[in-house]
């Protein structure tokens, strides 16, 4: 049915669509014509200048790199342009970050990721008047190859990452030309929120950023965020691999809604329907029943929640852990908290540049954590909230504002941004949560918090098929639909527990950011599916 | 619409369903009753025996581990039960792999993953007649805690991984009881195909295995396959991280079919529709345009192909690479082939036990590769096939049988199981493939093969928005639907290329297996969505 809906537009709709397409095509053609015109103009200018230009072979638009030849030319990286390279003639490929013509000179800032260097084309032995003009006309964000002499500077260049040298350009060729009107300016996109307003300068709103994500991701802030995110994944996996965990790959298309049926996306699967996994929960548990002992996985999870908040996405990356334990699920908590602590330490020790880069635009306090990690019981937390004037029942779930308040109270009392809240009321947890043996109203389950927001939810799971059936029945879940899951526990299952961590939330909260879209490269929410 | 279809069953259907549900519930209840009866019987037996049983506290069914207490008890691992532990009293948790009563003794084989050890309960000082009987009655695959003395054996125990010692059990408690009828026997599941037939013993067919995957994954073969798979992912990432690549996370729910529209799964997305990404292709390219320079990602990709072959899955794990290059896309080929070679070496050097374990059940020749990797051009391959009597046009795509034949010819001539086929005809490649600058009928694209089957497809991509629009138009792709993709190239884009590797295929072909379902934990194909 869904397929029909997609392809089976009415005739009217089709006409409207083809009109629209036609219009777009015309627009495209106009654009292309304009571009061609501009290029022709540049070429013509160059040609007319060529005759009396001694430097005419030293600059220009390169043919599109189509792998015509294997050039034996070493390119240096901007970050390697230090005092050691002084008086060397080098080749470099980089973006034109800014350019400024000034008399017979043109100053450029050349950029590679988070690094940049000052460069200069000046009329003289190696550059003609026409060459300086050509350089001055190169659009921002274009990619150029330059041959240049590295020169020491008298005074440090404060505005560039490479402060001790500048480049004296002897050849410059455009490898890929950027269109002249950028949808957003990189310098606006890294300006701290307050600063823009005070000085009457622009900042860039989030939708503009996300609509033009390819440009937004080029900023020093974005480069730092996603390099740090790559680090979180690596630290997560390396720590667990050292602890003897095995990485698993779990299916995302599933035949039954894993966690009850609400908030699940439906997929048309050939002549039938299927769902997108809301977590790898059931599969990682099956791996425990299949003797993998300790497993982790990193992958997308899908939630069809119509929530437009700062911390909800419809698709995010789950860092999932599951492990058999011997006698007490606190063995699991200890493994997870130690993993988090290793991540925090790894970020602190190896990603200081990235942290400080993000802090320049989004200032925040350094992230604090304790060793061993603080563990509070739910009842203690409720008592702290009561004491702070909050009215709530002992077995009520925590509201988002109360979670945040609790985070502040914990920070005041214990000076930590990371803690575990243990022994949640049974009623607010999923059916597969192990009840507390000492108090049937509570459960062997826990959440973990960073800066007062939940980043992990976990528990000891029920590993007995009979108790699991009872609990599912109690939650009014159709046992037939989760048969293969329940059957997994019929042939000997070790006691086990685990949890799922939201990658984007960990990055957001570690860096003290305020919107999870900042730490998702191409975020998905009920209103955003592009780019 | 899809939602309605799922929930909107007719009244008749609902009645049929609730009858079915009722029947199932009755069946469940009967099962539970039987189990309770059996447990009561065991308990009763134990109780009646208790009065005159001096060992009555030394065995029994443990209460379900519900984290009642933190036991200060160290458990040893089976693989650590070596001669060094002789004459030590140890605690161990493991599965009962087999048990055999013999007079006043009961022999057990206790198993942990791929390791096992012989154990013995014998009537004497520490064990009563009743205790031996209890041990003999423990169902296969149950999980037990045993306290035992480690004893040296006179003769090596050939049938166990731990050959120098056996365990003399002094206490034994059942932690989790397996149902008595296993859906498949582990020893049948690891029997080589031929052997079963010859000796009139059972082997297990693939559907039975997959229907009962939790049991099938416990075999030494499965444990080895998926530990090796975990290794492939780790080697892939570690190699690329060392080369300066950044890990990215790309969305799986997308607004437009990325590769043309065929074979794509549709998702209902709130009040609209979306698709499941057939590859991270467009997103990893956007990351290159966003200055990440070299990126990789590991994640699910989805193909709605109705192919029921040995090598197609509807969901598999893609190991994806994309990188900017300087002047020639062979820089990309070199990076990818070196990564593959590092994976092959890492497997050969660190996963020899796993390789040999799989070989016991599925014998195959060791995987051969050359350094540097062999690279053939498409025209050379066609010539080799022509010479071998195959009739095909110069610009025809390779059929699967011809791919396999080519693999054999290459193996004969060059003695390698891994090679690159370069310069495919332009017509058989996706619209974003860069045409060959020297011959418009060919392209800067390549496939990589292991044992004659394709594991990677890749190319230099078109990085110029205008040429990309032309190519998309030529392929009759609606430009409007891929607007944000094409726009990514308007603001300066470096020349770049990459490729996507199928994880399950790499594991299958490296190990010389013959069905990709063997290397997918929970495979998905047009006919299988469970477990």
TrEMBL record, chains A, B:
The gene is DARS1. InterPro entries: Aa-tRNA-synt_II, aa-tRNA-synth_II, aa-tRNA-synth_II/BPL/LPL, Asp-tRNA_synthase_2, Asp/Asn-tRNA-synth_IIb, NA-bd_OB-fold. Signal peptide: none annotated. Catalyzes the specific attachment of an amino acid to its cognate tRNA in a 2 step reaction: the amino acid (AA) is first activated by ATP to form AA-AMP and then transferred to the acceptor end of the tRNA. Residues 25-40 have a biased composition (Basic and acidic residues). It catalyses: tRNA(Asp) + L-aspartate + ATP = L-aspartyl-tRNA(Asp) + AMP + diphosphate. Its EC number is 6.1.1.12. Its main location: cytoplasm. It is found in: Cytoplasm. It holds the Pfam family tRNA-synt_2. Keywords: Aminoacyl-tRNA synthetase, ATP-binding, Cytoplasm, Ligase, Nucleotide-binding, Protein biosynthesis. GO terms for molecular function: ligase activity. This is Aspartate--tRNA ligase, cytoplasmic. It is an enzyme of class 6 (ligase). HAMAP family: Asp_tRNA_synth_type2. Residues 1-49 are annotated as: Disordered. Homodimer. Part of a multisubunit complex that groups tRNA ligases for Arg (RARS1), Asp (DARS1), Gln (QARS1), Ile (IARS1), Leu (LARS1), Lys (KARS1), Met (MARS1) the bifunctional ligase for Glu and Pro (EPRS1) and the auxiliary subunits AIMP1/p43, AIMP2/p38 and EEF1E1/p18. Residues 226-531 form the Aminoacyl-transfer RNA synthetases class-II family profile domain. Belongs to the class-II aminoacyl-tRNA synthetase family. Type 2 subfamily.
């Amino acid at each position: 049915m869904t397929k029909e809906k997609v392809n089976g537009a009415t005739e009217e709709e089709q006409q409207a669509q083809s009109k629209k397409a036609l219009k777009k095509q015309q627009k495209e053609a106009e654009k292309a014509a304009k571009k061609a015109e501009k290029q022709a103009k540049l070429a013509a200018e160059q040609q007319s200048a060529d005759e009396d230009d001694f430097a005419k072979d030293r600059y220009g638009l390169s043919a599109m790199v189509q792998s015509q030849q294997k050039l034996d030319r070493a390119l240096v990286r901007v970050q390697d342009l230090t005092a050691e390279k002084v008086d060397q003639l080098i080749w470099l490929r980089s973006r034109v970050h800014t350019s400024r013509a000034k008399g017979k000179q043109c100053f450029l800032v050349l950029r590679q990721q988070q690094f940049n260097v000052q460069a200069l084309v000046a009329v003289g032995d190696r550059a003609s008047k026409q060459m300086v003009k050509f350089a001055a006309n190169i659009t921002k964000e274009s990619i150029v190859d330059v041959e240049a002499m590295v020169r020491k500077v008298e005074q440090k260049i404060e505005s560039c990452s490479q402060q001790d040298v500048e480049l004296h350009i002897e050849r410059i060729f455009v490898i890929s030309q950027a269109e002249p009107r950028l949808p957003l300016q990189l310098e606006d996109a890294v300006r701290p929120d307050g600063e823009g307003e005070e000085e009457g300068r622009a900042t860039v709103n989030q939708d503009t950023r996300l609509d033009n994500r390819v440009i937004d991701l080029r900023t020093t802030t974005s480069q730092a965020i996603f390099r740090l995110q790559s680090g979180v994944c690596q630290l997560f996996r390396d720590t667990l691999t050292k602890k003897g965990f095995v990485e698993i790959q779990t299916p995302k298309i599933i035949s039954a809604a894993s966690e009850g049926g609400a908030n699940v996306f439906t997929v048309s699967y050939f002549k039938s329907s299927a769902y997108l996994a809301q977590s790898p929960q059931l599969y990682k548990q099956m791996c425990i029943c299949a003797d993998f002992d300790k497993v982790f996985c990193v992958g997308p999870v899908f939630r069809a929640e119509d929530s437009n908040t700062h911390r909800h996405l419809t698709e995010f990356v789950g860092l999932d852990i599951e492990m058999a334990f011997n006698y007490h699920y606190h063995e699991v908590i200890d493994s997870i908290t130690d993993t988090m602590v290793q991540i925090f330490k790894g970020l602190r020790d190896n990603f200081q540049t990235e942290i400080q880069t993000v802090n320049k635009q989004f200032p925040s306090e350094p992230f604090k954590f304790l060793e061993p990690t603080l563990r509070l019981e739910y009842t203690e937390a409720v008592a702290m909230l009561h004491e702070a004037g909050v009215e709530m029942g002992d077995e009520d779930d925590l509201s988002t504002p109360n979670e945040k308040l609790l985070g502040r109270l914990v920070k005041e009392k214990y000076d930590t941004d990371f803690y575990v809240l243990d022994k949640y009321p049974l009623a607010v947890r999923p059916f597969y949560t192990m009840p507390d043996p000492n108090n049937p109203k509570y459960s062997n389950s826990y959440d973990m918090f960073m800066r007062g927001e939940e980043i992990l939810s976990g528990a000891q799971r029920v590993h007995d098929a009979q108790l699991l059936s009872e609990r599912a029945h109690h939650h009014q879940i159709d046992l037939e639909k989760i048969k293969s899951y329940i059957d997994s526990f019929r042939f000997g299952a070790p006691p086990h527990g685990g949890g799922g961590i939201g990658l984007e939330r960990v990055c957001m909260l570690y860096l003290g950011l305020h919107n999870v879209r900042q730490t998702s490269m191409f975020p998905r929410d009920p209103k955003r599916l592009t780019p």
